[in-house]
């Protein structure tokens, strides 16, 4: 017979590291399941650890969550579990805030450098055996608008400032003299015309869904580049394709897209001014272990009846700053 609180771990193709999970197994019953067995594994469980944080399986299994008190997401974004029953209920939601900040910031800097130095173009010339002198852009002095002022946005801002870029931001609350962003505005369309690069890292909420539409892209400079490391659903994809085709913007680096995975025949694959990665901007070597460690540390709080770390405001859809 199972003894102790039941912890359900929702995984995908890989399981959490068994050694790292040892402190949880010592004090609780751990049920591992993939999406197909989630309904069964949720019955009687007090905690759900969403190790497969891209899953969309929970709404369909929610009817079986008869004892659930806490959901921990193995990611920063919590939109996969922010369906109405969770928002309206008493289940606490936490996330893995902080783990991916530096890695995503490095990714953003790398993509900006790829645009400025046209590294993809150099690689194409190399593969063709062509020696052709070209000039490149400077990023020092260029202006970047960071859309989203959470910890990842701050890490991006600090790194880009260190590289000599001028940083501004758009967030929920206007302010001046922010230590990382300088000036924070609240009107996206008013801020877009001043940016050479626009970085989307806002959480996905009803307010941010489709915020980058035809009107937003039309407000950007023709030479501006768009970098999305937030969620694909922040963008109206057809409007982005149109803006890239007609020259409203000069390029896009997309770690997240809508839909995911991007279909093989989607026009984004064919556009020469687009760089696409498969939602891995934060996936540094060792990140899976970091997810488990963050959950185990929060489990220590839960089992000792201490306040949990990184509690999500379910009305806002993220951990308040």
From TrEMBL:
Keyword set, alphabetical order: NAD, Oxidoreductase
Pfam annotation, one family: 2-Hacid_dh_C
Taxonomic source organism: Nocardia aurea
InterPro entries: D-isomer_DH_NAD-bd, NAD(P)-bd_dom_sf
Transmembrane segments: none
Gene3D superfamilies: NAD(P)-binding Rossmann-like Domain (3.40.50.720)
Protein's name in the database: D-2-hydroxyacid dehydrogenase
Residues annotated as domain D-isomer specific 2-hydroxyacid dehydrogenase NAD-binding: 110-280
